[in-house]
Design brief:
The chain has 241 residues and is α+β, with helices and mostly antiparallel strands. It has six helices and ten strands. Strands 1-10-9-6-7 form a five-stranded antiparallel β-sheet. The chain has a five-stranded antiparallel β-sheet with strand order 2-3-4-5-8, covered by helices on one side.
């Protein structure tokens, strides 16, 4: 049986007038993660909240052998439908990065640029890949395509929850080990805190409760300007026996 401790923490930051990040920390369902309403569009908070709550509702209704890709696509359809009411001209959208505990593994569903990291021992690994213009161009160049992009668009999203077309969902299976630290976070953190610094917080904070570590990470993002909402969920895998 997996034994975990978990916590979630968010801050509006020093610039935004509204917190459009949302988070989920549901040990009963084994569902954890974050969503970040897409900036530049109206209804970001509504999109993020609906995405997480829709997946929670689907998982509650069908907890056995859930199809997380289907769940995420259904959540995207729901966000798109809400967007047609709230903002017919431009729609609403959000990123999504959630993990569902299944047996001894974490099934991570991901769309956008919110991230999931694991600290195993003293080594941190980013389990997700940002769905950004820069990363897509890099992949296409690796396939031999001669493509270019404008620097100003490098971080623009290529996928999001709420898009009208069929959504590609990344699904990653991570086998949990005792001592692992799993971090879900939005770009209000990753844009200001380096991976090596996240590793240091997670490693040095092994004797602290997860909420204390999250508050330290968010505080550093705020100290460096806090230009966006900063949100994270942290899991301590205390036992997989």
């Amino acid at each position: 049986m997996i034994r975990i401790r978990s916590a979630a923490h968010t801050d509006i930051g020093r610039v935004r007038r509204r917190n459009e990040d949302r988070m989920i920390d549901d040990q009963e369902l084994g569902l954890f993660g974050v969503a970040d309403g897409v900036g530049g569009l109206p209804g970001g908070a509504e999109a993020a909240e609906l995405a997480l709550e829709n997946i929670r509702a689907q998982l509650t209704a069908k907890p056995t052998n859930p199809n997380m890709v289907k769940f995420v696509r259904e959540a995207s359809h729901a966000v798109h439908a809400l967007g047609r009411k709230l903002s017919p001209s431009s729609g609403i959208a959000t990123t999504l990065c959630v993990g569902h505990l299944v047996g001894q593994s974490l099934h991570i569903s991901h769309v956008g640029d919110s991230r999931c990291y694991v600290l195993c021992g003293d080594t941190i690994e980013q389990l997700t890949t940002d769905h950004s213009v820069e990363n897509e161009i890099r992949e296409r160049r690796a396939r031999g395509e001669d493509v270019h992009f404008h620097e100003i668009n490098r971080n623009a999203l290529t996928r999001c929850i709420g898009q009208p077309n069929k959504l590609d969902v990344d699904l990653h299976y991570y086998p949990l080990q005792t001592g692992d630290r799993i971090l879900f976070c939005t770009d209000g953190i990753t844009g200001l805190v380096e991976d090596e610094e996240l590793a240091k917080f997670l490693s040095e904070g092994r004797e602290e409760e997860p909420l204390s570590v999250l508050k330290q990470i968010v505080a550093l993002a705020l100290q460096r300007g806090g230009h966006d909402n900063a949100t994270a969920v942290l899991l301590y895998i205390d036992s997989t026996g």
